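HUMAN: Forgive my ignorance: could you write out one protein's sequence and backbone structure tokens?

ASSISTANT:
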Amino acid sequence: MRRVICAGFLAGLLALAACGQKAPEPAGSIRDPKAMITSAVLFDPARFGGEWQVAMSATPRCGGATQGWRWDGRGSYALSGVDCSGTVPAVLKGQAALTGPGGRFAPDKGYGREPIWVLWVDQDYRVAALGTPSGDWAVVLVRPGKARGDLIAAAREVLDFNGYDLKRIGG
């Protein structure tokens, strides 16, 4: 009888301990889903096209990786370089079709095939903040040789405003 009481007592303690634990967040989410998200209203697809380097990403070992966004003039980009949307860098290949105003794209490969939004780009298209509405990834891109601390700080502020966890998006 005493064993049964002890076993019941231990089971009760374990149940109470489990109630006090916080459920883990989804591994991929780096964005507060309650935060509003916006994309760049004044977006010029042709000016965005070209070579970019990753300045900040939640994917380890992606800092400095290159990405090519070749605008075809008809509504999509040919993508090349390194995909920094997963847990490890991967080959970036495929197309990203413009799907709406404000720099919104749908990739056919890469980026987890999630919608890509240009959240912000400076007026000279030197620094850009990109992310997904789901919050699975975000990145700050810079033109090679054009990185400026003040513009990268502005991109970080935009990511923060859109609910991204800046602690998880490193340089």
The first helix runs from residue 2 to 19.
